[in-house]
Structure prediction request, 921 residues.
Amino acid sequence: MNVPIEYFVLLSMALFSIGLFGILTRRNALMFLMSVEIMVNAANINLIAFALYHGNLTGQVFALFVMALAAAEVAIGLGIILVLYRNFRDVDVTVPTTMRW
Amino acid sequence: MEGLFDYAPAIALFPLAAFVIALAFGPKLPKKGAIPGIVATAGSLALSLAMVAAVAGGEEGYYHTTLFTWAAGDAAGEVGEGIEFTFGILIDPLAALMLVIVSLIAFLVHVFSLEYMNAEGETGLPRYYAGLGLFTFSMLAFVYADNLLMAFMFFELVGLCSFLLIGFWFRTRSAPSAAKKAFLVTRFGDYFFLIGVVAIAATFGTLQFAGDDSFVAAAEAAIDDGGQLFGFDAETWVTITGLLVLGGVIGKSAQFPLHTWLPDAMEGPTTVSALIHAATMVAAGVYLVARMFGYYALSPTALAIIAFVGGFTALFAATMGVVKDDIKQVLAYSTISQYGYMMLGLGVGGYVAGVFHLMNHAFFKALLFLGAGAVIILMHHEQDMWKMGGLKNKAPVTYYTFLAGALALAGIIPFSGFWSKDEILYDALIVGTEQPLIMAAYAMGLLAVFFTGFYTFRMVFLTFHGEPRSDVAEDPHPVGWAVKFPLIALGVLAVVAGVANLAPVAKLTGLEIEFLNEWLSSGVEGTTYVAYTDALAAVYDTGYIGTESTTVLIAAGLSLLLAFSGAGLAWKLYNVPEPVAHKERLGSVRETIESNYYQDEYQVWLAEGLTLPLARAADRFDQTVIDGTVNGVSSVSLFGSDRVKRIQTGIVTNYAALIVTGFIALVIVLGVLGGWFL
Amino acid sequence: MTNGPQLRLGESLLPGILAVALFGVMAMIALNTGFADEMVGFPEGISVTSEIGYALFDFTALQSTEGSIGNTEPFLVSFLLVAVVLDAALDAALVLAKRETEGKPIAALSSVSTGDSASTQPAATDGGAEDGSSRSSGGEQR
Prediction:
């Protein structure tokens, strides 16, 4: 109970940056999805830590919602990856380059 | 009687209906649209006469109503309330008189056209009658307009119609160019008129001609206040705006230096010339001055300029008329000269005299033009006076009516022109005794009387007297009733119209016979002759040479003497069986006058030597600097976006990297600004 | 061809510097922020889990008076919304995952075998034209 809030925040930031690192460097769509999950959970850690910090349950409840949304996001993400694979025979995110000028 | 006024809009709407009918059904109608035109103008004439009766018999003596408000703004003027733009009708004695003149002339011109145009087998007659209808409509609506903006709109419409009709024979080389010239020159004047309208609206917040909320009343109040308007003395500002409006008048009424379009306008059919010169286009300018005379009466400077321009134009144009060989050209210069007289009359405060001359001139000039038209029919479309001669016995009706018009034009007693011209000169003289500038204008006007007498009778003698000088003059084409009826009607008017205001006789005998004076002394308060006289008393001092009676006699005697000597000189030189040209005696002056004092040349030089290079420079500036800037901006942005779009690779990772970069930059900026790193 | 996830090193790690930099900046900010040393925490003797449950379903009466969240009705709305979103996500995932054979939609979870994976049709939902080989094989089967 005596861990200072800074550490939670740092942990959260570290997780977020790790997720971001994955997104920036990996090319596999599944890795992308996992990285996004890590970032979402970094946010969750923040929410819960500050719920404890302020003695307010709202953060905790919100973390639950975020988890539900993450599940939804994964469902969609996997669907997109499936389509991606069907169209390009690959899950490499650098292969589809039609989103451009 | 008062109920008659409800039909006032129909005066102008009849010719408009004729215009629509001639345009839509003209080719199928038996006379190609002449009948609707004649019926419509006859209806207008009847209604106008009814208006005169109603004005004379009504209790108020005028009729003023707003028909339609098409913009009511809150924009306040320098003085006054929010501006309202309306269409309205103002029929006071002046407007009623002018309505009768215009519809009468238009009616007679329509009748005359039956022979002049239809019988000659012209093509495009529906277009001709549609033009006449629209012309008459515009002028009538202009005459009874109750505010300056409506007047301006119909003023412009009149200009457009003159363009259409002068260019009626558009397949010739000269007619389209004459039409363009008339349009452009008058438009140059109208440009100032438009600025004047805007200035008056912005200053006084109203454009009404008459009544308590008129701009005239507002201007008077502003001058009495002694305040400043747009940084000028109220009176100076009134002068400026008045002169701006006068620009339109000078263009339309063919005053120096914008008179050059009028002689060229002779390219149109003679009937159109009659309409333009007697009743519509050219009269519109002088009528406008009379209409807002109360405004000019507030500004001695504007009045003096009007008087001087008028006097100068009268002399200037008269000298040019002396050497012309084309019968219509002579008449054209006489028109310019006569409108100069009207301007002189109005400028010296002779409101009644100016309107009186406007009326008389409408009759005798329409008569002369229609007479010239008859001569042209007789001569199988030959207009050179040197090929005529001896028509006196072969066409007596034409001769005697033309002679009546000529006598009126020359100002020979007792024809109508004498009375009005004499009144103008008398008014100029009594003011001129106190003011040298007006005296100069008077002198020029007086001198012009001599030239008028000379060129008028030179024209008469060359056309009708002597021996026939060509084959067609030996055997002229006969003319029918459609020519004779208008000529006789106008001939009678030219002889007797002077009775309307026998001012000299009234002054000498003390009889109450100045009918026009009384007629114009009623009407809307502030726009009557009485009110103008009061206003002018502050502007002009008048003086007599000896007593009033001697002054009257001197003025009349001088002008009569000059008119007779001019006519006598013409008699001596040209009333011989075989007249010869005497122009060579004029020596070097002849060339100057025959070239119209090089007015066209200098205006062309202004256009080509000054305006054209200026326009070229402006065009070059536009092409290089402005277009260059615009093109430069667009090519820079094109080039820039062509480069920048390359960062849109379509690879998701790069987009994410860009977003993160942006986010980091944002956080750093906010952090530095907010002191988060300390 | 399906490739297993490969760890790529070298230049491809370069954008990762951004992530590291972001972490550095954010950490600096976090460390410079003067947080209070002590956390407020939750009151002794209440079950956080059950409190969350009561809050989620807006059971105000059951919440402990001390440390309760208070007006929790919006949570109920959010809860329902999340349920709807999850449903929608499920349906969307099914739609995205289904494939078409002979013009008939084949459900992703269908037990009917459609042959080996090599002959599956690419769904023509977007610009699949980039991959020429799969297009051409599909074209022959039609």
